[in-house]
Amino acid sequence: MEETEKDRNIRILHSGVFTPLRRWATKWSLWPCHFLTSCCGVELAHTGACGYDMERLGTLNMGISRQANFIMVEGTITRKMARALRIVWEQMPDPKFVNVIGACGQRGGIFWNSYNITRPSDIVPVDFFIPGCPITPESLLRGVRAVQEKIEGRDNTTMRFKHVELPSGDGEQEQNRAPTTPKIFAPTPLVRVDVSRDADWAFGKDMVKNLKAQLNGLYTSITITDKNRIAIKTMPENLVETSRKLSDTMGVDHVKSVNVIDVPHERKFMVEYMVSGYTEELMPVILTIFTEIGREAEPEITSLASLWESANYSERELHDFFGVQFKGNEGMKGKFLLAPDTPDTPLRKDFKLEEEHYTIEEGVPLTPAITPPHYTPPSSSSSYSEFELEDLKMPTYEDVLKEAEKNDEFVAFIGPHHSGSGHLRWVMRMKGDIIKDVIPDPGYVHRSMEKIAENRLYIQNVPLTERPNISDPINMNLGYVRAIENALGIEVPERAMYIRTIMAELSRIGAFFYDMGIFPLFMGHSTGFMYSFAIREMVLELMVRMTGSRCTPSFIIPGGIRRDISDDVLDRTRKFTTAIYKRLKKYENIFVYNPVLISRMKEVGVLTREEAIRCGIVGPFLRASGVEYDVRKAEPYEVYDKLDWEATTGDAGDCLGRIFGRLEEIKQSVEIVRQAVDAVQGMPRGGVISEEILGDYKAASDDIRGYLYNVYGNLVLPKGEWTSVTEAARGTVLYSIISDGESNVPYRVRIITPCWMNLRGIIEASKGERVADFWTVYASFGYFPPEADR
Amino acid sequence: MTEMINTLMETVMSNQVSIPLIEPMLDSLPEIPMLQYMVAFMLWKPLFALLICPGLTVGGITLLFFPWIERKLCGRAQWRVGPHEIVWWLGGVIQLLADSLRFLFQEVIVHKDAHRPYFLQFPFLSFMIFLLPLLFIPAGTIVAIQTPYAIQIILALVCLFPLFILGLGWASNSRFAYIGTVREAFMYFAYEIPFIMAVIAMIILYKTSDPLLMASRQSIPGIILNPVAALVFFIGAAMATGRMPFEIPDSDQELCAGPHVEYSGIAFGLIYVLCYEKGYILSALMTILFLGGGSGPAIAGLGELSGVFWFVVKTYLVLTTLYMLRAVYPRYRLDQGLKLGWSPMLCLALIGLAISLVEVGVMAI
Amino acid sequence: MKMKRMKKVVGPEYNLSEKIKTNVYAVGVAMQESVYPHTMTVFYPKERKKMPDNYRGFILFDPDKCISCFNCSFVCPANAIRMKEAPNKRYYPTVDYGRCIFCHFCIDSCSSGALKATKIHDVAYKDMDEMFTPTEEMIELPEITREDKKYVEYEIEEDDLHLKRTKGEDYLFVEVPQPKEIPMVSTCIDPDSCIGCRVCAEVCEHSAISASVEDGGTLRMKIDTDECTGCGLCVKECSMQILRLVKK
After folding, report:
1. Per-residue pLDDT band at B321 (split at 50, 70, 90)
2. What's the distance, CA A694 to chain centroid?
């Protein structure tokens, strides 16, 4: 049945008197309805930008389904998104074509055993599949060419393999036994998050004394788990009191992460709040308040959202994941991140993901079967809007609708497929032109990163951790790798540290230009988009020369980097630090200092210092509101403390401040890159992987080629919780790895990405602004849905 | 019967477009009666205006190629190339032909909640209405209908445009279309008054509203005589056509093209060219009011076509400038657009009016 | 605590003269660029970007070098590589490009250099089943649809980015040197604990491990150090965890 659906479009084209004209016109006028669900959207943007310019082929990107005739599914279609894909496809006029881009949309890519993905080919008829993760602009254009040729009547895969017979052997070999999985799961591990560790940290010891005095009677134990990390164990009933004490007396003002750890064999959940404060002393310190609750059907704990607003969304997310009720949090009804038909409480240990297979066996399918989400075509009696709300199986917010009607407000449901908001749904209540409230409905790109991470080897998580945000891959990786290095106590060779810093800063520049390229688009300014993506194209050119991949380098591994970088590339990087200014100047003149833009950004979406801290926003957006917190300064890692640079801050806290702050950061990053390249060029080559971790394979210290699995396959982290904070482009990214000390897979990985923390800030900042300003505020935060949803 | 034809031919022959270059050719036309009549009809000024310039031919060319020129020029300013692969040796010049044919052959979806008759009528109706002002716009000395009230009629028709956009949005019955339609209505009030005042300033200055006379009275172009009114008119035109800083009603990223979010197929194709059509008419109006219409150095051999040539060149110049705004400016917010319309533009329009009055007074003295 | 140095960023003044100045700048840039554009477009189907030699594209395989160590399959984060039994009863890798994420961890884990990277990346498949590539099709460089007559290099110079166009087809396969040889061999560290389950012998692809009954009836596994490739499969499989890889 699907097959006929797929061929129907070609049949339409090939019928009637005007067949040649029809074919010709359709061939040169494929308007893609961009379906940028996830990472591949970054490369789609590059294809549309001046580096490749998709418009050359007549493919004008059009976000509106009624006017497009071509869908490019860029990346993962989650269960929540699946119906939207079908509906958009149904909305498009015939004849229409679908290309699926990127491994996620084919057999799942790295997310193949995720609990929340579907396959687009089950949902809509697909014409071409383009492999890659992410695809390159060239392969995306190859897909467009393939569709064009299909319209002309040549429906072919664009690759022809040559079949070579394998050696047949002499028939004497006996069949070998296939090896079992390399993963070791300890059956009943001892999970502890407060493993004491001697750290050379005098301030911490004082602080523990101070804490013990303050929290007299409220805590069970207070331990220094690492430098700058203190774990406070408390009883569930004392959690609120402890937190209030910390907040009142110590100046703890925000939550960095909320985490739940499921320990089924001990019949308990551990709930932990990682909190800190933006005061001079507290900045680098993370206090982990944790408690244990029983593992019943409906476990309950008091919410801290009323005390620390920044915990709100994380608590709702964990309610989805574990079914833990946070009493006092309003969002405990229904699901927040997950779709209605994803399995309940998927992050509990008794929910198992599909096992990996290492050999081709008869009867074992290539991928696990996924039942596509249920879709019913609209019945003739229901009106369109009813159908849309019911069949999308998305929250309809009946009470909001009723209340809005009473107050004479207008409610618009925006997204998840909207030309200007990414894959996130907003319910916007407005009175006239003023936004009264915005209700976010995230999770359309939730790909179950955390569940997958606890089922993979430590080294396999390196590519995984950069997938949330491929516009800033190095920083995402760096956080994860640093947590491992910290746990194993590895010293990274100096050359590798410098190269990692160079790459991290290039990645940061790239991410800023991504945000500042999408921002103009939301303002309808395509020139700004093109100019900033032109500069980003230069950054990616350096990336591909360094690592071999444009967006997903997976280049940083525990102990160093995969291989040394050639002098030629370093030379180019050095030249880049001066070459960037020419185009940056033009970008500033036409976009940033554009009077229309300034009038739209100035004093729009203002977050004061207090509001910013309360909402828990992070990174350059927090600094724009006047908080002097930059992880690179507060808790320097890599070689940031050896280089001469300045972090930026501002007072205004409006959209303009957020943009200008990042513009200045770009310049600082260029400065860092220049200094670091100069330093690396003076260093001897080789030795970029720590010899401690290499063990017997010391010879591979300048290039891991050949021995990656041998070295890293059996990495086991010491018992305890290992938390790293890293300053990624959009803010603090926090990785918290809990290891049981026996398994070679993590017991639990908690990833808190900056966009997830910034979501609350976007909502707060856009309240009371005008409707059009919502997109200004949204874009000024550089919100990247895959990063937020993880 | 013959008498009638003769009278008709007399009327036709008395009002011919004179083109010295092709006159020898016309004289040597073979003695086929119908052909001669046809040529004569074609060169009859009203019909020439209707069919060739500024009417269907030049209008059609504008609609087919101006989106391409816009895309190419913006592409150039944006460090890329724009449409290219389709007939690459001509730089993708027939891109719009492919687009419009594709729209023509594509399914037109009328969704359930739409008001079906209006939903289908309005795109076609508005396309027709948008063509009407062309009857009164002279290209050089050639005009379809010559009346001393031409400018007023054009203005009246131009001010009718937003009604049709409102109709489109209303018939769509969609939330985004609704917001877009309301914005369109607001914007309409914001630009209409300064826009009309700018035109009135020029009517006062030239003491006539006959476009042919206006052109002849611009020994110094109107843009130098009254630059303020020209600026107001230009900004008003940008607002009326929804060009970039004022692309508020159909803002792509906020409202998914606002009023025309639900349109597909040829209905959308017509709406897509609508704003180019509007731009063409307003640019032609600007040429007449401020750039001296078809006046310019006569080109030997072209005769009256020389006026047509200058008219088209000037119109395209204005149109290009209007479209290049896209490469320069992002979009204003609704309230900013309204503020701009109601305060600075209104003030400027008043100043423009004053300048005109003063100049007329000075000239009278 | 280290002294913090934070730079305060202040937005631009926004008065009339500034407005006019910035307007002129913005229009100026647009005018300048439409006359002398800094175009940087690669006309893809007709020309392609020259990717560096370390580019991570489709994967080639050399069965002669393969030691069937399963490392590629074990390390693959997407589980795209699965081993298939060849006619000679050896396990060789297959790649499912419907899952492959081109991280090339497999190539970096292949100590024998049997897996090689190509620069092929622009491919469109008609069917998802075709994306599964058996071993037989990974041996020779596949042929892809190409329309390119030129290749482009981005040259980053001190002043700006320049495009260097060269006529001719870019090559898609680069022969890279073999990975450094670090010979390893499997040894038993505690033969007394051996329970004689023979898993190590069964899993060994090179028949380097054999069982022999010693005097007294104890079963001893013998590892032939010449045959052993140091793949580590037996080490991983050993149920008593008494095998280790050591340097030869």
Report:
1. confident
2. 30
Q: Residue C244: beta bridge partners? A: C187
Is the predicted pLDDT of residue A388 greater than 70, yes or no?
A: no
The span from the first CA to the last CA of chain C, in angstroms, equals 50
pLDDT at A151 over 70: yes
Helix, strand or coil, per DSSP, at residue C151? strand
- What residues in B contact C34, CB-CB < 8 Å? 73, 76-77, 324, 327
Which of C105, C135, C167 represents a domain boundary (last residue)?
C167
Confidence class for position A8, pLDDT limits 50, 70, 90: confident
Compute φ and ψ for B86, nearest 5 degrees: -75, 115
* A30/chain B closest Cα distance in angstroms: 9
Cross-strand pairs, A74: A101
How far away is chain C from the Cα of B72, in angstroms, using its nearest Cα?
10
Cβ contact (<8 Å) for B84 and C43?
A: yes
Residue A564 CA to residue A686 CA, distance in Å, equals 6
A600 inside 8 A of chain B by CB: yes
A202-332 to CATH, choices 3.20.20.70, 3.30.200.20, 1.10.3720.10, 3.30.460.80:
3.30.460.80
Note the pLDDT of residue A391. 55
Does residue A769 surpass a pLDDT of 80?
Answer: yes
Q: How far apart are CA A725 and CA A718, in angstroms?
A: 19
Domain ranges for chain A: 2-152, 202-332, 384-441, 449-789
Q: Which fold has domain A2-152?
A: Rossmann fold (3.40.50)
Question: What ipTM was assigned to the predicted interfaces of this complex?
Answer: 0.87
Buried b (16+ CB within 10 A) or exposed e, A559-571: bbbbbbbeeebbe
Q: Could you give the dihedral angle defined by the CA atoms of residues B164, B165, B171 and B176, in that order, rounded to the nearest 10 degrees?
A: -170
Asked whether residue C177 is assigned to any structural domain, the reply reads no
pLDDT at residue A419, as a whole number: 66
pLDDT digits (tens, 9 = 90+) for A157-196: 778 888 877 777 766 666 777 777 788 888 888 888 888 8
Interior/surface letters A449-485, b for 16+ CB within 10 angstroms, e for the rest: bbbbbbbbbbbbbbbbbbbbbbbbbbbbbbbbbbbbb
Which residues in chain C are closer than 8 Å to B324, comparing Cβ atoms?
A: 30, 34
Cα of B179 to nearest chain A Cα, Å: 9
**Helix A655-681 / helix A494-522 crossing angle, nearest 10 deg:** 150
pLDDT at A516 over 60: yes
Q: Is residue C212 part of a domain?
A: yes
Q: How far is B103 from B107, CA to CA, in rounded Å?
A: 8
